[in-house]
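re: ur question from yesterday

yeah so i grabbed the chain u mentioned. its 59 aa long if i counted rite. heres the sequnce exactly as i have it in my notes:
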Amino acid sequence: MKRGEGILIKLIIIQAIALLFFQIIFHYSDAFPELKRLTMYEGVSKDNFTKVIETFKLP
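ran it thru and got these structure tokens back, copy pasting raw so excuse formatting
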């Protein structure tokens, strides 16, 4: 049982390192320019705060 848990812990650590590595690569490289354009189109990359207009009539 301890051997299996050790293998799982090693796999989790390797997975986390790979995730961080690829996130850094994709964030700083121009690997997917379409994805960057999509986030700019949807307004996710900027700190745009707009007022919400209430359309419901409160009693």
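noticed a couple things. The mean pLDDT is 79. also Residues 5 and 57 are 58 Å apart (CA to CA).
anyway ttyl
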